Amino acid sequence: MNETPAGTVLIVYESMFGGTRRIAEAIADGIRATHDVTVTRVADAGNVPDDVALLVVGGPTHAHGLSRPESRADAATWVAKEEMHLELEPGFDGAGIREWLKSEPRVTRHAAFDTRADMPRIFTGSAAAGIDKRLTKLGSERLAEPMSFLVDRKSHLVPGEIERARGWGVQLAALLSPAAAR
C-alpha cells in the first residue's frame, strides 16, 4: 500500500548568493524519499498547481524580514567586495518572495524557512516568520514551525546547515504522511 498522499510538494525560494537555493535543494532531498517534490526559483513560480499538498517557501532575511527591491539591489554591492567571495544568483534582482506572496498563492498546508545571520534572532529578524504569517492569513495551515538556517558574516552557510535542512525535509515529509494525521 502506498503511504504517499495524493499531490506533490512545491518548494519556492528566493536566493541572492546561493545559500537559500542550496537549503531549498537540501530540504527537497529530505522530502524526495517519500514524496514528489519540485524546487523552483520565485521568479519562475507563477501560480501554485492544484495538486500541491505542501508549499514550502523560503528566502533570505534582509533588515529583519523579507527582502525588498532596495535590499536586493544592495546585494550587488556585496559581490564587488573581493573578500566576500560571493556570486549573484540568476534573477536575484527580480521580484522576490514578498512580491510573490502578494499574488495570494492558494494552498492547504505550508512550511516556511529562511537564511539569516548566525546571531540571536532578536538582532536579525526572520523572513520565515513573515512568510508564515502571510500564508496563514491566506488560510493555509502551518505544517511545521518556521525554520531558520544560518549564514556567517560573509553570507556563506554555516557548516552543518545543509545536513540540518535535509533533516528538516525528512521531518516535513513525515508530518505530511497519512500516518502522521492519525
From TrEMBL:
<feature type="domain" description="Flavodoxin-like">
    <location>
        <begin position="9"/>
        <end position="173"/>
    </location>
</feature>
<dbReference type="Pfam" id="PF00258">
    <property type="entry name" value="Flavodoxin_1"/>
</dbReference>
<protein>
    <recommendedName>
        <fullName>Flavodoxin-like domain-containing protein</fullName>
    </recommendedName>
</protein>
<dbReference type="GO" id="GO:0010181">
    <property type="term" value="F:FMN binding"/>
</dbReference>
<dbReference type="GO" id="GO:0009055">
    <property type="term" value="F:electron transfer activity"/>
</dbReference>
<dbReference type="InterPro" id="IPR008254">
    <property type="entry name" value="Flavodoxin/NO_synth"/>
</dbReference>
<dbReference type="InterPro" id="IPR029039">
    <property type="entry name" value="Flavoprotein-like_sf"/>
</dbReference>
<dbReference type="InterPro" id="IPR001226">
    <property type="entry name" value="Flavodoxin_CS"/>
</dbReference>
